[in-house]
Design brief:
This protein has 545 residues and is mainly α. The chain has 22 helices and two strands. It has a two-stranded antiparallel ribbon with strand order 1-2. The protein starts with 10 loop residues before the first helix and ends with a helix.
């Protein structure tokens, strides 16, 4: 079999992979020094921008979903009449919105990295190579449409982060964080692979669209004669549903580790604090976005027929995550640890709309994230599900801008303070007004208070979807947690404008790259506050594409 590859479809990860190789080659042959570190940073930044240009070009073209790495019909497992082609890599609106989010965040992280590496001590070539490899995985994962591709892409996101965390040599806290992250990731991967093996063993296929057909009773499973028999097995519970549930729970647990939701959250604070700040920002936005993309694909595309099983699990996990994250954030004195627990709480808000897809009809939503599905048949109930998915993605996009802005300012402060605690930010408005205003705006956005209308808009969209989905108790939990979150965001913001002892104004001496990173994040957050309909428009398209 000769498989045709459409290189225009895989242009984004291909560009990033080529630039990663180029950076490694340049680092091997160029003399070490400050100019080389800056040059490698600029090459990496150019590669990310070029990849982002391909994403924009694919979005502007608007020619529908495009796929490659497809199995010919003669070799594909039968999935019933009228089944769609089995493809491993699909570029649709869902893929593009996540790829755009990852690459814009990647620009900010590369700029933060240029500041982190300016002092030496961390090998620049290895750093940018690993960072670009992470971005390759993060843009590949939302395009993955089979279980093997999902697992490989997720590991490509995770594995380079271990090394990035440990590249801060002779730092005990950094090494400890790398080991913790490694152990957590290995365990989560093992759990996920066991779940994947169970699902494959039952369905006889790894393609998400075929899994949806099998687990909804529309196509026969291996060893079962007719679809009607298999459907009755699902309904009657002759042993098969138990195996399906176990596989589903294990796969969800694997993704839960990656996005740091309760009860798989304990690693987050220590890893964020021990890792270099650009890596912490990467974990909080890029890695989290990739994890949510994979989780949405598995739940809504592969397992919509099991929504009655996973929807209550997601609802309970979302409620626990936002509650535990906010309560732990209230007790923190370290800026990075506070942002880590805040990130955990925000994961709960992002998960919440997915919990109501069973009530709004997740079965029909499978067509919104698969290749070539007819849009005409996705009206009504499918539109409601697309709205729930769009609410999660909208919150994720807005959260990314706000969180990256906060981390960028924390990056600035880390150059002048040894411990980077909240007390170090007291009086920042008098030492560096621009940094204080930028951080205050991002914190207010995260809290959901005016003038940070982006955060308020995100919470309103999620709250509306939960109410419309009939999960009133979850809406109450979210409302209570929103009030709890106000406390630590407002307290940190108040310290910025509280007079304090005179301190060195080292923040002003930070490299221009750090200020550019702050500016990009704040401008995007401000744009979302002024014109929130931009986010809703983009994310609704991603959910229906």
């Amino acid at each position: 079999m000769i498989q045709q590859i459409d290189y225009s479809v895989i242009a984004v990860p291909l560009v990033l992979a080529l630039v990663a190789g180029l950076v490694l080659m340049l680092d091997a042959f160029l003399p070490s020094g400050g100019r080389t570190r800056t040059g490698l940073g600029l090459v990496s930044l150019a590669g990310v921008v070029v990849a982002l240009g391909f994403v924009v070009a694919q979005a502007v073209r608007g020619d529908g979903a495009r796929a490659t790495f497809c199995v010919p019909d003669s070799l594909a497992t039968a999935a019933g009449p009228g089944s769609e082609p089995a493809c491993s890599f699909v570029v649709d609106r869902f893929t593009l919105i996540f790829a755009g989010l990852v690459l814009v965040a990647g620009v900010v992280v590369v700029l933060m990295s240029m500041t982190q590496l300016a002092g030496g001590g961390i090998p620049a070539g290895e750093w940018y190579f690993l960072l670009l490899c992470t971005l390759v995985g993060a843009v590949t994962l939302p395009a993955s449409r089979d279980l093997i591709m999902l697992v490989v892409a997720l590991e490509l996101v995770s594995l380079p982060v271990f090394a990035l965390t440990a590249l801060k040599r002779y730092d005990g806290r950094s090494s400890e964080a790398a080991v913790k992250l490694f152990l957590v990731s290995v365990v989560s991967t093992a759990v996920m692979l066991f779940g994947v093996s169970l699902l494959y063993g039952i369905a006889g296929t790894v393609y998400l669209s075929r899994l949806a057909s099998v687990f909804s009773g529309k196509a026969p499973a291996p060893g079962v004669g007719a679809p009607e028999t298999y459907s009755s097995l699902l309904a009657a519970g002759h042993g098969l549903p138990g195996v399906v549930t176990v596989g589903l729970v294990l796969v969800v647990a694997g993704f839960a580790f990656k996005i740091a939701v309760v009860p798989f959250h304990a690693w987050a604070a220590d890893v964020y604090q021990g890792a270099p700040i650009p890596v912490a920002a990467l974990l909080s936005v890029i890695s989290k976005a990739a994890g949510f993309a994979g989780l949405i694909l598995v739940l809504v595309t592969a397992l919509p027929g099991q929504a009655s099983t996973w929807s209550p699990i997601i609802a309970v996990v979302a409620a626990l995550t936002m509650t535990v994250g906010n309560l732990l954030a209230m007790r923190q004195r370290s800026a990075v640890r506070l942002l880590a627990w805040s990130s955990v709480a925000q994961s709960g808000y992002i998960l919440a709309p997915l919990a109501v897809t069973a009530q709004t009809g997740a079965m029909t939503a499978a067509s919104s994230l698969t290749v070539g599905a007819g849009a005409a048949g996705a009206a009504g109930t499918a539109g409601d599900v697309a709205g729930a998915i769009g609410a999660s993605v909208a919150y994720l996009v807005i959260y990314a801008a706000m969180n990256l802005g906060a981390f960028a300012v924390v990056m600035l402060m880390s150059r002048t303070t040894a411990r980077n605690e909240l007390d170090d930010y007291r009086g920042l408005a008098f030492r560096s007004p621009v940094a204080a205003i930028a951080l205050a705006f991002c914190l207010i956005c995260l809290a959901g208070l005016p003038p940070g209308l982006a955060g308020l808009f995100a919470k309103v969209v999620v709250f509306r979807e939960i109410i419309e989905g009939g999960a009133g108790w979850l809406a109450v939990v979210m409302a209570v947690n929103t009030v709890i979150g106000l406390y630590y965001y407002v307290v940190w913001t108040a310290r910025l404008f509280t007079p304090a002892e005179p301190a060195p104004s080292g923040v002003r001496r930070a490299l221009p790259a750090a200020w550019v990173a702050v500016g990009i994040a704040v401008v995007v957050a401000l744009l979302f506050s002024v014109a929130p309909q931009l986010v809703l428009g983009m994310t609704s398209l991603s959910a229906s594409g």
